[in-house]
């Protein structure tokens, strides 16, 4: 799996990572280009999110991401311009792959939730659609 491959827009899927069991505790690992469909260019995480807060509210032109709940839980609302779906993340071995041109919103964070995101590109404000109508218009232009 190479990051130079241009994947279609609108893909969302759960990714299961390996788990190594040990009496001292479990270990899960991720390798870019192996367990996930891109090379990792940026990692960031959200924590101390108030339980009534909403995050996200945007889409990306080119960026691909995998979102994990390392601790606690939260809901991801996904919109590809045709249909909407929801995913509850609560298992640190399972991440949600979100391809480019997918609107995402996050809410219902549990107390102490930690969200980690693996991204295919460094931060670039120009890659964001922060206006939903602009996002829908971009979908029509991307066909």
UniProtKB/TrEMBL annotation:
Residues 11-138 form the Sugar 3,4-ketoisomerase QdtA cupin domain. This is WxcM-like domain-containing protein. CDD domains: cupin_QdtA-like (cd20292). Transmembrane segments: none annotated. InterPro entries: QdtA_cupin_dom, RmlC-like_jellyroll, RmlC_Cupin_sf. It comes from the Bacteria. Pfam families: FdtA (PF05523).
